[in-house]
Write a structure and sequence with these properties.
48 strands; alpha+beta; single chain; 20% helix
Length: 816
């Protein structure tokens, strides 16, 4: 007797082989993977990320590739009435064969495909063949038919990760392969494809939830079934009639006294254990699914007001300031499951409550969103469109329609999903990047109609249908820096910093309602660079290093900003250090300005959180997971309770920010002192900060210019909140002009071999860096040392347990 339940078998990672389609020689490989990883695994190519190997491997994108897999099944599986091959992540143009029989073909890396296979299976050996055609060849061909040529280039014709075609932070690898292992799914009468709960509204102690499920009735006649949904220990039952084929079941559940899910910093990210069961009339369980759900409402409030148009997120009826970054795929070629896990942990450590999944990459895996649910990290989810105009023909739109439905069905049930956004910068590019300059009026109208049909009609309709209660935003930003309204309306991408070469201080006064992108480049940590660039090429303008710089003016801008504000680098290693410090200081200062402007500004998401390869980019964490100076400084910049200073003509203004939902009592000591610790001004304050607030709490009246203090003094901020003590520094002059004394740093072990160090100095030390090695890292790092106040540093070594000898440490500070 066959099993009533749906059975899912994940094909093995082993027993795979691949070849160039023009070759007769098969080589072994592991899956998930692609043509580049398979070749690298067989030592047929050198590391794609080393030196300038990327250029030498460009020819691989023009070839066709085949992957095959052998597997066996048992008679129990074969006795099931329905057996399908389920493929999720076939990238991109693929024809699939089982035991020589053609199953079908794919043309969208973001879709899940099902192929009936029962009639082609054998109890003996079975062989699957995935035959991929060159995505580069196909997209070039499709693009040649576009009239007019669409902004964005050939990539716009392909439903595959857009960054594979090259971006200003990463390489060009137009790969093909399987990003996930295929599955064999079998069942008899009924199949449960998806089930989830959505919060529709919360009124006082009462939540309305929408139960949504997709069910397949394989019979030719309707069937009466019973549905049971359990949320913790509460059970809700329904009866329904399933028509033949696909059925969408929707029903509301009234749930009293819910424990609410909150984003990190606002409350617990409470999750309920849930289950869904489908039973026949005799009580036999036919299908079931288990998951966790969070009960919450998240609304984007984008309303006209006296200033312009608001842009903020209201969670469970309360406005939340969003702190975080823009997330890109964590590896362009290799399987990166472990990377995203460590990245989400880093997001927690640095007080993020939101990540924006950028539209030029991928929809992340289920486990990614499940982890965001549990950690309380809200997700701004772009659909996968970026910096281009896309085709509007029926075939393309139909393809995207299926993609959108599948992704919404999969993702919308997650408590962490805060927003679905149609695209990244497409509307901004159309209106302000000169895309229309060479077009006639008829072409302009057609392309804009295509935009509206996809992003202002199709996608919002799909979100409304499949993601009840989740907001939609058609394009980010609403206005870019080319339109003065970017400061008063909606979300902003302000690239006045970097692209327009503005000083960091300029963005401190260009405050938008919500900053969804801004950033500054830095090199990866030297230890990371040494893994991918030979020692002789560790020169700022070497061809190998320049191959890892994808912005056309990148190194020039890095140097200009350093020359403007920082001491002259003593050598390449010092340049890496200063460049990272420049990025960290500037971005942190701007984030503090955004937070001071709350509630006018209600979000600060810097570009970008992570890297997809070991490049020179805007990331806070490099490709190998090493924290740059920026990520270390963000622990203070995004701290739940923060105090910061800004100068005006007559005063130094001190602001207090509290992002929590509780009143915070604090003690704040303000000391203007020289770099030897001699105070000129001292003030101690005890007060409270209202919940979810920012306010001016003190004015320091000192004429810095008249007293000639700017180069020799700084402001030390020390605050105590709930018995935790924090320090911050505010400087009155550019780093290169500070008259810092030569530091005398003392490093001591604290009674254990692989734990903590005490770092102190009798004079102020600016941005002390404990040089990291391949196996050894330090938290915090790039930190200020105030005179006579030790800093406790945690040493993390992945291999050695031996005692660290302080004299073996290499220390950097701003003057080297």
């Amino acid at each position: 007797m066959s099993n009533a339940f749906t059975q899912t078998i994940l094909l093995e990672a082993a027993n795979w082989h691949f070849r160039d389609a023009d070759s007769s020689d098969w080589m072994p490989c592991q899956m998930p993977g692609n043509n580049y990883t398979a070749l690298f695994e067989n030592k047929a190519i050198l590391s794609p990320y080393f030196g300038d190997h990327e250029k030498k491997l460009a020819v691989l994108a023009k070839k066709n590739w085949q992957f095959k897999h052998s597997f066996k099944i048992d008679s129990l599986l074969l006795n099931q009435e329905h057996i399908e091959l389920e493929c999720d992540g076939l990238d991109t143009y693929c024809e699939i064969f089982l035991n020589g029989h053609f199953l079908g073909k794919t043309d969208n890396a973001f879709r899940k495909y099902h192929f009936p296979i029962k009639e082609f299976l054998s109890l003996d050996q079975n062989e699957l063949l995935f035959s991929f055609n060159s995505a580069k060849g196909i997209t070039d061909s499709l693009y040649s038919l576009q009239n007019p040529a669409l902004p964005g280039g050939p990539r716009v014709c392909a439903r595959k990760p857009q960054f594979h075609f090259g971006w200003d932070f990463g390489p060009e690898f137009v790969l093909c392969g399987l990003s996930q292992l295929p599955k064999i799914v079998s069942w008899n009468q009924l199949r449960l494809e998806e089930a989830g709960l959505h919060t529709i509204q919360i009124v006082e102690d009462h939540a309305t939830l929408r139960l949504q499920a997709i069910l397949i009735n394989a019979d030719t006649v309707p069937r009466d079934v019973a549905i049971s949904c359990k949320i913790a220990d509460r059970e809700f039952k329904f009866n329904t009639l399933l028509s033949p084929g696909k059925n969408v079941f929707r029903n509301n559940i009234e749930f009293k006294n819910p424990n609410l899910w909150w984003p990190r910093g606002s409350g617990p990210a409470y999750l309920y254990d849930c289950s869904f069961q489908l039973q026949d009339s005799s009580g036999v369980v036919l299908a079931q699914k288990k998951w966790k759900t969070g009960i919450r409402t998240i609304q984007l409030i984008a309303e006209e007001d006296s200033i312009g148009q608001s842009f903020y997120f209201k969670v469970n009826g309360e406005a939340v300031f969003c702190k975080g970054s823009n997330y890109i795929p964590s590896d362009i070629l290799f399987n990166a499951a472990e990377k995203w896990k460590s990245l989400l942990n880093a997001a927690v450590e640095t007080h993020f409550n939101m990540l924006r999944i950028w539209g030029g990459g991928i929809y992340e895996c289920d486990a990614f969103y499940e982890t965001c649910d549990s950690l309380g990290i809200m997700v701004w989810q772009d659909f996968m469109f970026a910096c281009a105009m896309y085709p509007g023909d029926t075939a393309f739109i139909d393809n995207v329609s299926i993609e959108a439905e599948q992704q919404l069905q999969r993702l919308s049930k997650h408590a962490s999903i805060a927003l679905f956004c149609g695209n990244n910068e497409n509307k901004e590019g159309w209106h302000r990047w000169g895309w229309q300059a060479s077009l006639d009026e008829a072409s302009k109208q057609r392309l804009w109609n295509d935009y509206q049909n996809l992003f202002q009609k199709l996608l919002p309709e799909k979100v409304q249908l499949w993601a009840p209660g989740i907001s939609y935003w058609d394009s980010s930003p609403l206005f870019g820096r080319g339109d003065d309204r970017f400061k008063t309306h909606g979300d902003a991408h302000d690239w006045g910093l970097w692209h327009d070469e503005m000083p960091f201080s300029k963005l401190e006064s260009r405050i938008p309602r919500f900053m969804s992108e801004f950033g500054f480049q830095s090199l990866a940590s030297l230890t990371t660079l040494q893994e991918f660039i030979s020692e002789n090429d560790l020169i700022f303008e070497s061809p190998a290093l320049l191959n890892h710089q994808k912005h056309p003016r990148g190194n020039k801008l890095i140097k200009e900003y350093l020359d403007r504000d920082y001491p002259k680098p003593a050598n390449f290693e010092h340049l890496v250090y200063l460049n990272q410090l420049c990025q960290a200081d500037g971005i942190s200062q701007i984030i503090s300005a955004h937070r001071r402007a709350k509630p006018y500004c209600m979000g600060s998401l810097y570009w970008q959180f992570n890297d997809c390869w070991p490049g020179i980019s805007w990331s806070g964490i490099d490709y190998l997971g090493r924290w740059k100076a920026l990520q270390h400084q963000l622990k203070m910049a995004f701290a739940p309770v923060q105090f910061s200073a800004m100068e005006s003509d007559q005063y130094i203004k001190i602001y207090g920010i509290n992002d929590s939902r509780d009143i915070k009592t604090f003690q704040l000591d303000l000391t203007v002192q020289d770099f030897f610790g001699n105070p000129l001004y001292f003030q101690s304050l005890e007060d409270t900060l209202k919940e979810n607030s920012s306010r001016l709490i003190h004015l320091i009246s000192i004429d810095l210019n008249e007293l000639a203090l700017r180069e020799t003094h700084y402001l030390q901020l020390k605050w105590v909140v709930e018995e935790d003590t924090f320090y911050a520094s505010h400087f009155f002059e550019k780093p290169k002009n500070l008259q810092l004394p030569k530091p005398d740093v003392i490093v001591e072990n604290i009674g254990n071999t692989n734990g903590q160090l005490s770092v102190s100095s009798n004079t102020f030390v600016r941005a002390l860096y404990l040089k990291e090695t391949k196996d050894e890292v330090y938290f915090p790092n790039y930190f200020d040392v105030h005179p006579g106040i030790p800093v406790i540093v945690t040493r993390k070594n992945s291999k050695s347990k031996s005692e660290l000898l302080p004299e073996s440490l290499n220390l950097f500070d701003i003057k080297n």
